[in-house]
Each structure stands twice: as structure tokens, then as C-alpha cells.
Amino acid sequence: MCLACAFAVVPPRPAPSDGDAIFPTEAVPLPWPDGRAIGGTLTWTGVAGFVLEVDGTRIAFDPFVSRPTLFATLFRRARSDEAAVARHVGALDAVFVGHTHFDHAMDLPSVARVSPRARIHGGATTTETCRRLGVDPTRLVTVRDAERYRVGPFTVEAIRIEHGVVPVVRFVDRLDLPPVGVPRTPFRWPRGDVFAWRVEVAGRSFHVQGSAGLAALPLARQSPADVLIACLAARAGTPRYLERLGERLRPKLLLPCHHDDFFRPLSDGPRPIATLDWPAFLADAERLATSYGTRLVRPALLQPTPI
After folding, report:
1. Alpha carbon of 296 to those of 2, 37, 230, 281, 290: distances in Å?
2. For residue range 77-127, what is the model confidence (pLDDT) as tens digits?
3. Contacts of residue 280, Cβ cutoff 8 Å, sequence gap at least 6
4. Nearest-angstrom CA–CA distance, 100 and 8
5. What is the DSSP letter of 264?
6. Cis peptide before 272 (omega within 30 of 0)
7. Coil vs helix vs strand at 215
8. Which 3 state secondary structure label does DSSP give 62?
9. Is the CB of residue 210 less than 8 Å from the CB of residue 196?
10. What pLDDT digit, counting tens, does each position of 241-268 carry?
């Protein structure tokens, strides 16, 4: 599992007023500087999960909505809530998975069942995990750095990155699958290869960074992007994390993600992770605004944002 992120969400808890400031309750259209909207939607489904829909084509990134409790994560068999998947993710045309920790990949078999058209794209550990869990191998695409995939109006490029680093915790993180079977509890889901994604659609570009680590050469390959979706959990272990992303991408818009407590049911509303340090993030966002004119957009959980 995402051990670094899991240990980041345990108490102490931020005050409720902090959550009110971080997580808006209503979505507003993305404030494109030139005012030209794509005509689709972007929906944050919690943690690093997003669904993009344009011209009737729906693609998802890290669709995880089951959100077992901390006790269940540590001691109970991984069980996806298929009704929640159908309700909050719905039918998809393609899925892109950053890595195989449970808070990114545990719901994939359910996603495959409720989205019979969708192919699942991810690293070798992600696709092998899905195969062992009964997903049709013909629907699995093992990605490599710099490969590009076309889905309807979308072009998606895989970008190799690293996972965010937290001292001590990283030493007990499982990196790959056991020789046979799958780990019994979500806690032991492996990491595998880690990817970010560049999405191009209708003349706009999105950089989807679902984990807070960077790899120098793949990052150096990147051209500017209109939107940066940036994981905040475990970012402290990556020197100059947002600054380096800003230098390469010069984004017009910045959306935070993976900053909510993923042991909390979606029905209870979002709560920040204990190690979020929202003021420090705001300071980083302000530096991007000063350097590149980047505007901060706070996503509303489960609310389709017009793009």
C-alpha cells in the first residue's frame, strides 16, 4: 500500500475550519486565462483519482473510491465496493494507473466490471495484479515511459516518476508482487513502477502527477502544460517538488490532489491529511503565481468541474 501516504493521514487531525478552506463544496469552471473552454468536465474522485470527460469519452486516473478504514486496511482482505465504483466512477473508456498501491489500484477489478469497454493502462505490476484478480488480459496495457495512447479525443503519454519519500516508512514498503497470488490485505499491495501522465485534448494539456516523486530525465523531456494536477502527500521528501514541476511545466492552473484522508468514507466529506501543511503549499503556489501566472484551483470532491 501507499505506506507513506497512510501514515500521513493518521491523527492529529486538522480543525474542521481548515477542511472548509481546503475543500470547496461546489465546483466552478476552470478559469482559463484566455477564456476558451474545452466543453467537458474534470471530476476529482478523491485521493489521486480524476475522471476527464470530453465529447462523450470518459477516461480515469487512479480510480479508487472504496476507502476501507485503517483497521480494515491493516487486517482485512481487500474488498472493493462495486456499488460505490459504479456510482462515483461509472462507465469509462480507458483507465490510467500511476502505481499499484491500494489507494490507487485496489478498485480496478470492479472498475473493469462496470466499464466493459475500458482498457487498463499501468506498469507491469499493475497489469499483473489485475490479471491475477481476473481481469481479461486483452484489456490490460503495460505502459513504458514516453509511450503515447489515443482514446477518443484524448492523447495520454506515460511519464516515469518516483514515489514520494518518507523516512523510515519507505523501508517496509513492498515493491512487487509475491511469486503467486495477491497480498491478502490492502496494506501489502505493492508499489511497482510509478507514472505520471500528460493528457492532451482539444488544444489543452494536463500533467497528472499522482505521486510526489520526480525522475530527472523524464521530467526534462516535458514541455509546458496548461494544467498541473499535483499530489501533495509525501511531497516533503522530494526537494523543490513544486518548484521543479513549475520550472518545466509553467502551468496556467494548479490543482492539488492526494491531500484528503483516504480512510474516511466519501459520504463523510473530505478531511485533510494530518501532514498536509496547507500554508506551506499555499506559499509554493504563490511562488508559481509570481513566476508563471499560475492560478490555484481547489477541486470539489465528486463535483464535475466544467473545463
Report:
1. 26, 17, 11, 10, 12
2. 999 999 999 999 999 999 999 999 999 999 999 999 999 999 999 999 999
3. none
4. 18
5. S
6. no
7. coil
8. coil
9. yes
10. 999 999 999 999 999 999 999 999 999 9
Per-residue DSSP letter, 246: H
Amino acid in the structure at residue 1? M
Domains and CATH numbers, the chain: 3-7+40-292 (3.60.15.10)
> pTM for the full model?
0.93
Segment 205-246, tens digit of pLDDT: 999 999 999 999 999 999 999 999 999 999 999 999 999 999
Grid coordinates representing 72? 480494515
Residues paired with residue 155 on neighbouring β-strands, in sequence order: 150, 200
* CA 197 vs CA 207, 210, 251, 293: distances in Å: 6, 9, 15, 23
* C-alpha distances in Å from residue 251, one per residue of 37, 136, 230, 246, 268: 16, 38, 11, 7, 32
> What is the number of helices (H) and of strands (E) in the chain?
10, 14
Cell numbers found for residue 150: 489515443
Tell me how far the alpha carbon of residue 151 is from its chain's centroid.
19
Q: How many CB atoms lie within 10 A of CB 254?
A: 24
Please report, for residues 49, 108, 190, the alpha-carbon distance to residue 256 in angstroms, rounded to integers and kept in the order given: 11, 23, 24
Of 126, 276, 283, 271, which Cα lies nearest the Cα of 212? Answer: 276
Q: What is the rounded CA–CA span in Å between residue 216 and residue 206?
A: 19
